[in-house]
Amino acid sequence: MASAPQITLGLSGATADDVIAVARHEARISISPQVLEELASVRAHIDALASADTPVYGISTGFGALATRHIAPEDRAKLQRSLIRSHAAGMGEPVEREVVRALMFLRAKTLASGRTGVRPVVLETMVGMLNAGITPVVREYGSLGCSGDLAPLSHCALVLMGEGEATDAHGNIRPVPELFAEAGLTPVELAEKEGLALVNGTDGMLGQLIMALADLDELLDIADATAAMSVEAQLGTDQVFRAELHEPLRPHPGQGRSAQNMFAFLADSPIVASHREGDGRVQDAYSLRCSPQVTGAARDTIAHARLVATRELAAAIDNPVVLPSGEVTSNGNFHGAPVAYVLDFLAIAVADLGSIAERRTDRMLDPARSRDLPAFLADDPGVDSGMMIAQYTQAGLVAENKRLAVPASVDSIPSSAMQEDHVSLGWHAARKLRTSVANLRRILAVEMLIAGRALDLRAPLKPGPATGAVLEVLRSKVAGPGQDRFLSAELEAAYDLLANGSVHKALEAHLPA
């Protein structure tokens, strides 16, 4: 078994690949000595302010609408505990383990920047939790995306204090003191400023954005492949995907890339070659001919979202923040609008990708449009229903993604006695995008399954090398045409082949350089 990747947290921050490695691949984290030195140096400024007579927000005052109250030194440890306990107010089902690990790692990255004023022990304990596989239970509801993902981060901070709920590396909920003892960790008694430093960030929404981008990178290649399979199965033309019809005429980079993919995926196809001469059709339907324009637009949307994610990764979000001069000052950088907007933008693109895939699928099932394929690709139409209801399932997923494309970021519900009177709802945008991406994978799995059966029904003609490679992977788990059989299991098997990377791996040799 390959060992887990290793990541060092330095002053320069972290990359999206680091987030994925920690969240999904159990990467072990170390902390550079320079980070620990910087944290100790910055902490000295906080200690000086804590001992001064002048109230400073987050150090010697209350929080939010209660920021006007000065807190006596003997009550400040209690203040930090109270902040975390009261803010760990989530409800609903636990969110996925990888989401929590991404959130924790991103908060650790910000703590390591030296701009939050925490002691080294706070960062060391959070990293220790990640390395030990201790995962706080974070509930679905609680974040408004401003001041950051307060409730989700507070559930994590509560575990850092030795309280709350957490699971071990195997996903079992166990007492937090027991988990800490096994890992050789000591719960942290938070000092001035440290409570706010642990909860004021966009880490939950950003972590989910980064993982969605990683998923979509693969799914867009797969969307190009399933579209190519559908074009091939419906005796469409590959000529509309030629390079000279794209970048020179309409220079959207994503469109050019998807057209290049589809042209490559259809190369050397005996099915395509079989009707290149003497085909009376002038043009294919939009869902076939315009696939690169739609998938390409999604690619460009992803590029914009990745730019926003990269900028947010470079941020050190906290309030108040410790400037390099040592000044501790309030700010509004915790507002999640930049991340929330692109989460919503991606949900629109994902919904439209699923919509065009479903239209391609439907054409293959309708004998009036499928170019001599049997109705619903059934073995004995009338006795057998073939793929009829698979399209129903796909259409239901498309309908749900259309609902999920309604933006969350245009909404705002004031909170904290109108102190926090405009919020981003970025967490909600992230949660619905996560569902949308999973639904898109199912939608493409249905298209792959149905297009694969249609390609088999074109025998003795064979698909091209690229689409044939996808079909071979599919046939390793799902049988070809025949009488009706239990279809749900085959749909789930097709989904698993997309989710575990098998299909994308088969495509890699056929992707243009």
UniProtKB/TrEMBL annotation:
A single GO cellular-component term on record: cytoplasm
GO biological process: L-histidine catabolic process to glutamate and formamide; L-histidine catabolic process to glutamate and formate
Keywords: Histidine metabolism, Lyase
Record's subcellular location: Cytoplasm
Reactions this protein catalyses: L-histidine = trans-urocanate + NH4(+)
Pfam families: Lyase_aromatic
Pathway the protein acts in: Amino-acid degradation; L-histidine degradation into L-glutamate; N-formimidoyl-L-glutamate from L-histidine: step 1/3
SUPFAM superfamilies listed in its UniProt record: L-aspartase-like
Major subcellular location class: cytoplasm
EC identifiers of the protein: 4.3.1.3
GO molecular function, one term: histidine ammonia-lyase activity
Family: Belongs to the PAL/histidase family.
PANTHER family linked to this entry: HISTIDINE AMMONIA-LYASE
Name by which UniProt lists this protein: Histidine ammonia-lyase
Organism: Glutamicibacter halophytocola
